[in-house]
Amino acid sequence: MESREAVIIGAGLAGAEAAWQLARRGQKVVLYEMRPEKMTPAHHTGYFAELVCSNSLRAQALQNAVGLLKEEMRRLESLIMYAAQKAKIPAGGALAVDREIFARYITETLQNHPLIKIHNKEIKSVPEKRPLIIATGPLTSMGLSAALEDFTGTGRLYFYDAAAPIVTYESINPEKAFFASRYGKGGDDYLNCPLNEEEYELFWEELKEAEVHQGKEFEQQVYFEGCMPVEVLALRGKDTLRFGPLKPVGITLPGISVHPYAVVQLRRDNLEGTLYNMVGFQTRLRWPEQKRVFRLIPGLEEAEFVRLGAMHRNTFINSPLLLRPNMEMRKHEGLFFAGQITGVEGYVESAATGLLAGLNAFSYLQNSGEIILPPETVLGALAQYITTANPDNFQPMKANFGLLPPLEGKVPKRQKKELMAERSLKTLMGFQKKF
Asked: Do residues 424 and 289 share a domain?
């Protein structure tokens, strides 16, 4: 009997990786990519896995979460990691690549594989064939976007236009920040950083003057009042922030019934409480400026930012409602999503979810059960986050150690990431024996 074919839509980093993972296991693949027949506003070539922004795949060291994620992918025989090694150029502690060599290697590898059939055409509906992997990225065509809106039943896809910075809990100064909710409603769900008048004025002045990122044409948009950049609010007047995201109403300082002059609130961003989101701090400030200005807030002087604020066009599904941690739709067996459309951010993260979707599509064909990586691995933790986060305010996420379960016992801070990396790779080694 002829083997069934796996269908993949999109040959970006995620789709290319998924196709490779299936084909290298002897599985026939049909890969659809609309470029170069139909281009996007960001792409310039018809190569698969074209890097449209930076040519850096970020840090290499295992003490960095994305460096560890890359090592996990290498051990799972990732095509993207093979290509990166072939195209590597000097970049200090980062893994940077020659864009053309990188994309050409991936394209030729897949084009020359005897089990992969490639069609350059736009797909405007959701095919019925299973397994199916949709990996069309943040610039999914309008036709397919409309089809996905209907198919998922969640209304329009999330056109991501605002994300606030996220910091690690352990980097917040507990002597300056305190837990409380406005008017004492509910539990003490927010971490509050109060500012006196002098501190507020310094922060406001620096925020007004900070350098803003100028996005590409396809990223430009009209701002809505509900997601106004914090620096735009600051330009409207000295007290605008104090009547907006920094309003002190309903908050009193611990031990005394006095309102702070202003207050920055942070909201828990994951179940473990290791990450906190800066409420109302969506921004277009350049990343170095965000670190400089936001560290003027009392309690955040040494904040470790695992995600910085951003405002740009990005299409993604509400994964916590729709997906399981194996990248498969909860209500549609054999239909998988991968890449930035799932709510991950970054080249490496996108490719990694393609790897996971490819493994699970193959497992689906073999009737061998789902593959859910342990949360002690970076890929497992990332997949768990995007599929279990709060769907009401779900925002894309990059790899970071804050997603992983804490280590047992008391561990010196300088050793924590090294020990987490050791745990991750040991866990992955044991888990690999299952597939």
From this structure: no
